[in-house]
Amino acid sequence: QVQLVESGGGLVQPGGSLRLSCAASRFIFSTYAMRWYRQGPGKERELVAAITSGGGSTNYADSVKGRFTISRDNAKNTVYLQMNSLKPEDTAVYYCAANIPPYGPHYWGQGTQVTVSS
Length: 118
Fold this sequence. Notes:
- About 0% of the residues lie in helices and about 55% in strands.
- By secondary structure, it is mainly beta.
- The relative contact order is 0.32.
- The mean pLDDT is about 95.
């Protein structure tokens, strides 16, 4: 069974940092582009960041550009999201997804909660 398991979420003050991890198993991780999505309270799920299968190219939503960094370690079958300068509007459940362009995500994790509050 394909699995994507997110971890690293929690409660952080505005301006703080968190590092999310997504551990993949039971599929060929290195052949997939990876994405991070988030869904805040009462909001639609949105794409936050994306990285190519080899890790050579990244893209970010304008709302997180310059603050978040997506990376991956194919030897560990893990994708990361470093989140700096966090804002209350970053509060959401964050999901990782395995993607094959141009079809979109094929596999989803269960999500991890990030709450940014004083």
